[in-house]
Amino acid sequence: MERDIKKVLLSQEQIQNRIAELGRELMADYADKNPVFVGVLKGVVVFYADMIRAFNAPCQLDFMWISSYKGTQSTGNMLVRQDVSADLKGRHVVILEDILDSGRSLQFTYQHLLDKGAASVRICTLLDKPEGRKHGITIQVDYTGFTIPNEFVVGYGLDYNEKYRNLPYVGILKPEVYEK
Ligand code: IMP
Ligand code: MG
User: Fold this and answer.
1) Closest CA relative to residue 10, chosen from 126, 102, 100
2) CA-wise closest residue to 101 among 65, 126, 118
3) What is the CA(125)–ligand 2 centre distance, in A?
4) What single string gives the DSSP state of each residue in the chain?
5) Tell me, what's the pLDDT at 70?
6) What does the pLDDT look like over 64-106, one tens digit per residue?
7) Ligand 1, atom nearest to 40 Cα
8) How far apart are CA 38 and CA 165, in angstroms?
9) Is residue 135 a contact partner of residue 108, using CB atoms and an 8 Å limit?
10) Dihedral of alpha carbons 134, 103, 25, 150, sign
11) What sign results for the dihedral spanned by CA atoms 135, 173, 67, 35?
12) Is 70 exceeded by the pLDDT of residue 167?
């Protein structure tokens, strides 16, 4: 897998240091709120496991699995493959995501969880690619790990065709890998 990586963008150490900081920010805002951390599968799993252990107070874990399927329009629709199991009425929800690109999946997830009656919904993403944001997407992120350039990255949960998720760092994939 390593030989397909052009450059290590974020090392394990950089990621761990930033997660410790994010944990302190979340503790300041949620330590007494018993928040529900909703992970968006599958890319988030590695970040999720580290992030919840940086939050040293009671919390509840839940997951959603969504995928975008291409309809006839280029906008792409979102499909809920697996919904959260907790009753979110009156609960404080923090969505954990691996990466925010066009913003479509988070915009959808955010509205979906608000519609379930959550008292509040905030977003925590490990990576943000602001240049990828699509016109008309207004989603705001509350906690961001790293803002990165508009390059395709893999590792630390992120995949290309389901591969590279288990690399322990975030790397830029060599273009020849997806041009093959
Ligand atoms: P959005 O709806 O365009 O914001 O897409 C977010 C989803 O696209 C993420 O949850 C990832 O699954 C995928 N994605 C976007 N950019 C990358 C990338 O650079 N590497 C791997 N997956 C990505
Ligand atoms: Mg994802």
Assistant:
1) 126
2) 126
3) 10
4) -GGGEEEEEE-HHHHHHHHHHHHHHHHHHHTTS--EEEEEETTTHHHHHHHHHT--S--EEEEEEEEEE--SSTT-EEEEEE---S--TT-EEEEEEEEESSSHHHHHHHHHHHTTT-SEEEEEEEEE-GGGPPTT-----SEEEEE--S--EEBTTB-BTTBSTT-SSEEEEPHHHHH-
5) 58
6) 999 876 554 445 688 899 999 999 999 999 999 999 999 999 9
7) 10
8) 19
9) no
10) negative
11) negative
12) yes
Contact 62, 40 (CB under 8 A): no
Which residues line the pocket of ligand 1, CB cutoff 6 A? 43, 98-106, 152-154, 158
Mean pLDDT of the chain: 93
Tell which one of 96, 158, 166 to mutate to probe ligand 1, the residue whose CB is within 8 A of the most ligand atoms: 158
Tokens 């925590």 belong to: 124
